[in-house]
Amino acid sequence: MTLANRHVHAIDPVWDRITEEAQNAIRDEPVLAGLIHSSILHHPTIEMALAYRFAQKLASGEMSEQILRGLADEALTSDPAIATAARADIVATFERDPACDRFLQPMMFFKGFKAIQASRIGSWLWRQGRKDLSYFVQMRVSELFGVDIHPGARIGRGIMIDHAHSIVIGETAVVGDNVSMLHSVTLGGTGKEDDDRHPKIGDGVLIGAGAKVLGNITIGQCSRIAAGSVVLEDVPPKTTVAGVPARIVGEAGCAHPSVMMDQLIGIRAPDV
Questions:
Q1: Pick from 167, 237, 147: which is nearest to 200 by CA?
Q2: What CATH number does the domain containing 141 carry?
Q3: How many other CB atoms sit within 10 Å of the CB of residue 210?
């Protein structure tokens, strides 16, 4: 472990807050004491807690918790950026999701957060050339959480996926930093191409529920995609698109759509 990594472990406000909230949760709901202690308080670092949660959730008769824990420990040790991104995801979820009032909640209960963290480990396996094992992780995440993220996709940090049901992210998709998306979003291809065929989502983009972004197109930073839209062409930065197929309907409405989470689009009243 490098000196910088030791410093992060020694001064880790995100993890400190999670452990404090865990102790409060046990006080308020003692029946959860065993679960919270084994998942959070038993571990000295967030890396170890993430590895434990990954193994505990994905384990099955096909793959033991012990094997999965070893894989997760290896990934988190080899690539400290995985846990750094997890911290950013926790803060993003707390700041953007009105249903989240503690850092503890994503770690314990939010399937969008758990799916992203598991997919990061699958992505690490993919980059190591361990593709069959990474496909196993993808399969289990899809089975457990209803989120299908190809291990070849590149996902930034500060990601918030609200509700997270029926999310699909294709192999060559790129998702920038500080992106927010709601349930039933697809970042997919348009056919049977086998090259670079999936969307590139810029930093700070907000993608509404049920939106489909298809093909090797670029969604400019700090843009908004309205719920239910089908996006087939590039989207300029700081704009709002809506419709099937999606068209530009205005500016993004604010400097940071993914943070503000404002999904309302002004509609002019019909003439009477």
A1: 237
A2: 1.10.3130.10
A3: 16
Find the domain containing 120 and state its range: 13-146
- Strands 247-251 and 239-242, by their bridges, are antiparallel
Which pair of structure tokens corresponds to residue 252?
A: 């993004």
Q: Edge-to-edge strand order for the sheet containing 200-201? A: 154-155, 174-175, 200-201, 218-219
Tell me whether residue 4 is in a domain. no
Report the candidate in 228, 231, 229, 249 with the shortest Cα–Cα distance to residue 240.
249
Q: Which of 145, 185, 183, 146 is nearest to 169 (CA)?
A: 185
Q: How many CA atoms lie within 13 A of 268 on its CB side?
A: 5
**73: helix, strand or coil:** helix
Query: What Å distances lie between residue 57 and 47, 68, 166, CA to CA?
Result: 16, 10, 18
**118 located within any domain:** yes
Q: Which amino acid is present at 272?
A: V
| Strand pairing report for 200-201 and 174-175 | parallel
How does pLDDT run along the chain (272 residues), one tens digit per residue?
A: 444 454 445 689 999 999 999 999 999 999 999 999 999 999 999 999 999 999 999 999 999 999 999 999 999 999 999 999 999 999 999 999 999 999 999 999 999 999 999 999 999 999 999 999 999 999 999 999 999 999 999 999 999 999 999 999 999 999 999 999 999 999 999 887 789 999 999 999 999 999 999 999 999 999 999 999 999 999 999 999 999 999 999 998 888 898 888 877 764 434 43
Domain boundary among 105, 121, 146: 146
Tokens coding 128: 């190591």
Asked whether residue 120 is assigned to any structural domain, the reply reads yes
